[in-house]
Amino acid sequence: MATIVTRSGKGSPLTNNEVDANFNNLNSGKAELSGATFTGEIVAPSLDISGNIDVDGVTNLDVVDIDGAVDMASTLAVGTRVGIGVAAHASAALNITTTSQHLRFNNGSELGIIELDSDGNLNLWAHGDGESINLKTGSGTGNNILTITGNASTFAGTVTANAGVVVDNFT
Questions:
Q1: What is d(CA 102, CA 88) in angstroms, rounded to the nearest whole number?
Q2: What count of other Cβ atoms lies within 10 Å of the Cβ of residue 75?
Q3: ∠ CA(78), CA(80), CA(83), 5° rounding?
Q4: Taking Cα atoms as reference points, which of 98, 70, 71, 73 lies closest to residue 83?
Q5: Is beta strand 132-137 parallel, antiparallel or unpaired with respect to 143-149?
Q6: Structure confidence at residue 171 (pLDDT)
Q7: Where are the beta strands (DSSP E) in 2-119?
Q8: Average pLDDT by stretches of 10, the chain with 171 residues
Q9: Residues facing residue 83 across a β-bridge
């Protein structure tokens, strides 16, 4: 911050050298229209920027409202809950409420979809011929307890039916 000598502070009239020094101090302490560098904190009640912002370091924003696309080159971490198309639900980690209610998983060559259709049916899709849907238990890679490939189902272990069982085309 520029040091300015005032008449009231000095208690007597300023000399020509003191007036010149005041102007030099003001000139060296001013922010230019472009390329200004500030040290310390800048406090402003509002800020309107037209153009790009390049931030080195951490940016802490209390509320963010983005009206355009977001392009992230790294990881997104969310503290608790996410709402897509609607506010986050109080007890759900992910709340999706849109007319396109399906999740697409693509590992680069294969595609899987979880869909909630308009009748309330939950559909699991493994795209492609010969793809499988596996229900697993355990840890690590898990153990397949049900594998569905095409229209064939394979159960690992015992199948228990507590009601009637209907079998068509039994061979």
A1: 17
A2: 5
A3: 80
A4: 98
A5: antiparallel
A6: 65
A7: 82-84, 94-96, 102-106, 111-116
A8: 83 92 80 75 87 87 85 83 83 78 80 84 82 87 87 85 79 65
A9: 95
